[in-house]
Task: inverse folding
């Protein structure tokens, strides 16, 4: 009878669904932690809002575990996340999560898992962070992620920060409710099959985390395909966690946002982001002393639609600049210090009109 009962269990999703062609390059590296800002607000929302589904789904690394470890802890629903499903087309990410399943199956002590995660990154530095261009140093990238993980643990943000969070995630892995699926979100065919499998198993999406994947879309067709892929997984009430569109990918930070889907589909939320055409980047100084000595750089060209206040600048000969037209044509002069903005503006107007300066200026 026991053999019959075990044979009736559904096969794991990764054995049922076809895998996409894997990608193996630095762009598809292992993002152990995320550099997105606004994570505190996202985690607070995850704590306070009622749990509306059984599964946490999404891409990438540990942040999805961070959300699952606190989901609904301050809500009135009294529910927890039961399944975690990660889908990614990265071969490097697939190897990482395969090793993580082994680590969690063999370790029940949080600090032991932390040590094994760090060692996993060190042992697979070239596999996870190697790049043909040689622009990035794999050991340096690895150490940056390890330091970032330590920082998240110390700040209480990580699922490895305390034993209660760790126990929630460990329980999901021990029950066999964690799945990594090598799927491409721009290919709806795999997600159509996934949707059918989830319906058969009564798995519903509580939260969908897609990070900044929309910035990697190269065409409108890929956006439409992604909306179809992700939209098939959601339901009214599902939380979508992604990043706001950026004007300049080199200068603007990644800012997380959390929105709740009120109706079926994601067309109201996902759009093709504007292309990043910034051609100026501020030089990065290696030492704080050099940073203090470095002259102030102008903003990137994407933000030059608003000229600075004319009263803030003067030409080399001391002639005040007043009109924006003249200011735009002039070379960046030295700033005037010692006066307030209003005083400099009034002084510039009086000087242009040939009036004597105001006393006490």
Result:
């Amino acid at each position: 009878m026991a053999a019959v009962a075990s044979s009736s269990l559904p096969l794991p999703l990764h054995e049922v669904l076809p895998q996409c062609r894997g990608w193996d390059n630095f762009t598809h590296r292992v993002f152990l932690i995320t550099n997105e800002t606004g994570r505190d607000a996202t985690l607070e929302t995850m704590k306070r809002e009622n749990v509306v589904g059984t599964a946490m789904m999404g891409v990438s690394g540990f942040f999805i575990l961070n959300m699952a470890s606190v989901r609904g802890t301050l809500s009135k629903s009294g529910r927890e996340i039961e399944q975690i499903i990660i889908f990614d087309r990265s071969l490097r990410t697939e190897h990482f999560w395969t090793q993580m399943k082994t680590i969690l199956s063999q370790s029940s002590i949080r600090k032991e898992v932390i040590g094994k995660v760090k060692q996993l990154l060190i042992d697979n530095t070239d596999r996870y962070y190697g790049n043909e261009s040689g622009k990035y140093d794999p050991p340096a990238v690895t150490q940056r992620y390890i330091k970032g993980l330590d920082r998240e643990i110390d700040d209480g943000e990580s699922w490895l920060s305390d034993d209660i969070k760790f126990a929630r995630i460990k329980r999901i892995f021990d029950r066999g409710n964690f799945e990594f699926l090598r799927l491409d979100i721009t290919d709806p065919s795999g997600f159509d099959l996934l949707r059918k499998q989830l319906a058969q198993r009564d798995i519903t999406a509580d939260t969908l985390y897609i990070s900044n994947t929309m910035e990697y879309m190269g065409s409108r067709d890929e956006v439409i395909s992604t909306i179809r892929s992700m939209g098939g997984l959601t339901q009214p009430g599902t939380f979508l966690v992604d990043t706001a569109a950026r004007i300049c990918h080199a200068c603007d930070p990644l800012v997380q946002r959390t929105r709740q889907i009120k109706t079926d589909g994601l067309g109201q939320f996902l759009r093709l982001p504007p292309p990043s055409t910034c051609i100026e980047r501020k030089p990065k100084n290696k030492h704080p002393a050099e940073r203090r000595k470095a002259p102030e750089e102008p903003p990137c060209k994407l933000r030059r639609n608003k000229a600075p206040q004319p009263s803030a600048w003067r030409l080399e000969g001391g002639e005040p600049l007043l009109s924006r037209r003249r200011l735009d044509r002039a070379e960046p002069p030295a700033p005037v210090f010692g006066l307030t903005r209003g005083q400099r503006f009034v002084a510039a107007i009086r000087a242009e009109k040939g009036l004597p300066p105001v006393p006490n200026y």
